[in-house]
Specification:
Elements: E1 2-5, H1 9-14, H2 17-28, E2 32-34, H3 44-48, H4 52-66, E3 71-74, H5 77-90, H6 95-106, E4 108-110, H7 111-118, E5 130-135, H8 138-144, H9 148-154, E6 160-162, H10 178-181, H11 183-200, E7 204-207, H12 210-222, E8 229-232, H13 233-238
Helix pairs in contact: 5-6, 5-8, 7-9, 11-12
């Protein structure tokens, strides 16, 4: 099957190895992967801030770039949620566009959901050994039901020991613009998350959204914790957590 990879802004700018790990996983699952070079933002920041016009423009751009693929996969629950859940809402008053974008939205998947339920990946290439705890990001969990999928894939890795932390489904305080507009509250939420991570006593904290992971990592380091690894699920599954 032909898969279009939506890299995401944060991955492209901050940790591109997540994107390359995603490609490795999709290819391991037998997919033919393409990465449209003109892709940019999915429009979520504008949508969350009420800028409907900009979000629609970016959604139409996405439509022209990805409409020809069997599936679209992204290593981000929040971006997948924007495309799958919110794109149709943007064009509910435009039947012509909705007829094209709604099917594309339904063919768009968060990475672990796709690997487990569509590609049926059995042989995980990663060789991670150690203990980890998993943070469930808000959009992926609440909009897409992504919770069991990453754990099921990690369970296929014999060297991984999963230790659930308290309140794994509670927000880390990032929330995009929320962390800027409500900095003090965001910092307190991040501190609570870090306390639960440290109490779990694992080698790594793993998640499926880089925004959350950057927020968590920044707070852990400010608290003096330089030991706990902060990894995206794709890095662990593809054994690329140490690559550039």
């Amino acid at each position: 099957m032909r898969v279009g990879l939506f890299f995401t802004c944060l991955v492209d700018a901050m940790r591109p190895r997540i994107g390359f790990a995603t490609i490795s996983l999709l290819e391991a699952a037998g997919c033919e992967v393409s990465v449209p070079q003109t892709q940019t933002c999915c429009g979520q920041p504008g949508y969350n801030s009420g800028d409907r016009k900009t979000s629609q423009a970016l959604a139409l751009k996405f439509l022209t770039e990805f409409e020809g693929f069997d599936y679209v996969v992204t290593p981000s629950g929040s971006c997948a949620s924007m495309i799958r859940v919110h794109y149709p809402k943007l064009f509910q008053d435009n039947p012509a566009v909705l007829a094209r974008i709604a099917p594309l939205s339904l063919r768009t998947y968060e990475l672990t959901d796709f690997l487990l339920n569509i590609a049926k990946l059995e042989n995980i290439p990663g060789q991670f050994r150690g203990s980890l705890t998993y943070h469930d990001s808000c959009s992926g969990l609440r909009d897409l039901g992504v919770q069991k999928q990453p754990r099921a894939l990690l369970a296929k890795m014999p060297g991984v020991a999963i230790q659930e932390m308290q309140e794994s489904t509670t927000c880390c305080g990032f929330g995009g613009a929320f962390s800027v507009k409500f900095g003090d509250l965001s910092a307190r939420m991040a501190d609570n998350k870090c306390t639960h991570i440290e109490a779990a006593g694992t080698d790594a904290i793993v998640g499926g959204d880089l925004g959350c992971l950057l927020n968590i990592e920044g707070r852990l380091r400010r608290r003096g914790n330089h030991k706990t690894q902060v990894l995206h699920i794709a890095e662990v599954l593809a054994d690329q957590e140490g690559d550039a």
